[in-house]
Amino acid sequence: MKILVPVKRVADPDNANKMKVTADGSAVTSEGLAWKVNPFDEYAVEAALRLNEKGGSGDVLGETVVISLGDDEVIQTLRQPLAMGVDRAILVKASDGEIDSTVVAKALAAVVEKEQPDLVLMGKQAVDGDSNTAGQMLAEHLGWPMATFAMSIEVADDGKALVVGREVDTGVLTLKVTLPAVVTVDLRIVAPAAVKNGVTPDDHAYNEGARYASLKGIMKAKKKPVDQTSLSDLGVEASPLVEYTKYELPPARSGSATFVESVDELVEKLRTEAKVL
Amino acid sequence: MTADERSFMKSIFHGVIEESLIFPYPEMDPEERETVQMILENIQRFGESEVDAAKIDREHKIPDDLLTKMKEMGLFGLTIPEEHGGLGLSASAYARVIQEMAAIDASLAVTIGAHQSIGLKGILLHGTDEQKKQFLPDLATGERVAAFALTEPGTGSDAAAITTRAELTDDGQHYILNGSKIWITNGGFADVFTVFARTSAPDSGVKPRITALIVERGEGLTNGPSEEKMGIRGSSTTEIFFDDVKVPVENVLGEPGRGFKVAMSVLNSGRLGLASGALGAIKRLIQMSTERVNERKAFGRPIGEFGMIKEKIARMSAEAYALESMTYLTTGLIDAGVEDYSLESAICKVYGSETLWYVVNETLQIAAGIGYMSEYPYERLMRDARINMIFEGTNEILRAFIALAGMQSPGKHLAEVAKAMREPIKGFGLLREFAVQKARGLVLRERLERVHPVLSREAVIFEEGSVLLAQRVEQTLRKHGREIAEMQFVQKRIAEASIDLYALAAVLSRTTRALERKGEAGAQREVHLATAFSTLAKARIDDRLVNFERDSDELLKEVAAQTYADGGYAFDIV
Predict the structure, then answer these.
(1) Which chain B residues are within 8 Å of A219, Cβ to Cβ?
(2) Is B392 a catalytic residue?
(3) Tens of pLDDT along A91-119?
(4) Comparing C-alpha atoms, which of B132, B245, B130, B128 is closest to residue B195?
(5) What angle do CA B134, B140, B146 make, to 5 degrees?
(6) CATH of segment(s) A2-249
(7) What is the pLDDT of residues B77-107, one digit of tens each?
(8) Is B520 in CB contact (< 8 Å) with chain A?
């Protein structure tokens, strides 16, 4: 099947302590930050590749395309999914000030109209803004069925539907979505047996986590096409609804820990000292 | 002298600072840097998901499926040009990848290093187009693995002692190879060997002709069992036996009889892989140390607050900065087309392996009790580190090489030094050339003009040190002439001063670049490291060169001679 995977460039979460805010709180400074694909989006890339390959054989079953919004620097971030095995990339040129989840969802909808994928697979949220809204808005714009927080995906009905296990507070909710659909993924989608496409042998053992790219894959990625378009080309107005009024860093953690002997004592302390109960 | 023939360090011996060779500090072009960053990220991910270094050490083996995954990953074709199926990385990019692999596991780094840094390097440097077409594609994918076979029971860096013999058949179409090689990395599974064999009669009076041959595993070529080793236990180290192995004459590498030249050129570049591998291990160890000093508490506070710990961490960082600066300055020289980097790469190997030994020792010391326990990785990392001071030329032969080759004209190599050590008088006639040269540094102090003014104090340490080195060299040669070939106490002091001078030059160049890029405030941390390193280096250079002629040399020789005669330490208190 043809799968479109929207990915966002985020500051490397392993280096989040380098994040700084300007003195007046008007902006986050990006100096010295390393950029990466949003981890949840990378899980979506991994899941898409697993859906679109006969695992272990090197055979590819369908086209996988990544898309992102941002400036030219984002192209470098898109090389990683391309090196992992994605076929091509699309960059919608836009500056950070022009976009929020609503604009992103409209832009993605416009690209979906053009590309006609069978499935849009994306991270449940980005680890910078943690909004968790773009996927849902996109499904609404398209009028497609949606499954969020996927922890497992199985191809069903001869490829016409997906059975999706959703991780919710009370357990796992399993539902079937008819394609085309929007699915957002959670961390466990990259467990070794989380994705079943009906072609890859059941005993094929995937590694835990998103795959690493081979060095050949990295060289090839340099030559894979990155189509560029813009919000105006797509007919999308750059009018974000969210307005950021002020940024501040979270308070530093105190780092103090108190050890307790029993659950009763824990509950007591949570009530009287921490005052959270 | 054309640009390509110049050597920064050999010029320093002559009192000349070839500043244009090392300024500006080299850097990869943006596209390659981007590619290398991606390669490193994916190698880290590979390491996290696939490699269990403790298990490799415990089982004395790299699991077969891991080796297969390393080949699929592309780690066997890093330096092979794209046209032959490899990645075609530059010397700097290759060294950086080896650095990353060494941080993951030393056995893995040594395995791919033995394949590419030395095993197939001869084919890259000296192979004909036919040889390249025939061998490189399979070596790039790792379908076949390469090894470098020089060492024999009686010989390491001494080519004249090679006894493995290659005899031309009557029809002139083949060599018949007989003999054996020891301690061959990848020996247990390699398919393509670069072998050095004597192609002249073995009698001592004749100047030996050593020829480099590409030898494929096949009839008559066998390997011994894997040697049990102290460290890098996952790597394969075996003896290799040649019993009437038939090698087509088309497999001669370079010219017949010029094999030692092939060996030296391969080892010159191979040593840089060891230096960058040492750096990878060092960076990991410093990370382990800094984690440890914050966690571990003594007397109610983290041990990192104590001065003796801070001194260790600071010195480790300063020396790591110097090693990184010199290693990537040298790979940058190679990428810029400089041909003579033999002295520089020998310096990187000696300094890298000894800095690693210092860092691993201090890291284990900081970890204290748990450092000594096999449950923790410290002792394994120490065992893995130890080999670097031994292989690819012991640090002793390399010190002799640095001192003696530096005193010769540029273009002279370890071959002459080996000859000089074998026949001190006959072999070192070349030295006269130097003695009569007017060393410019003696008359006019050369200056490092391109160093940023913030570093002027450190630049003076370098300038004064290099003048002193040139003076000492000149003075020694005037006084002792060819006898210098036998004066290893002096050679050692000259070599050690040269190592610190090269480190200092590299640090000055790199820090100047940082200052030019980021300004004084932005490059403050680099400046601190540069200043800290130059303080350490100055003390060592002064120790070696200010008090240069020492009566104690003769005394120590006498003590050694007596100890030899006694067959050990002869004293007791009862």
Answers:
(1) 35, 82, 87
(2) yes
(3) 999 998 899 999 999 999 999 999 999 99
(4) B245
(5) 75
(6) 3.40.50.620
(7) 999 999 999 999 999 999 999 999 999 999 9
(8) no
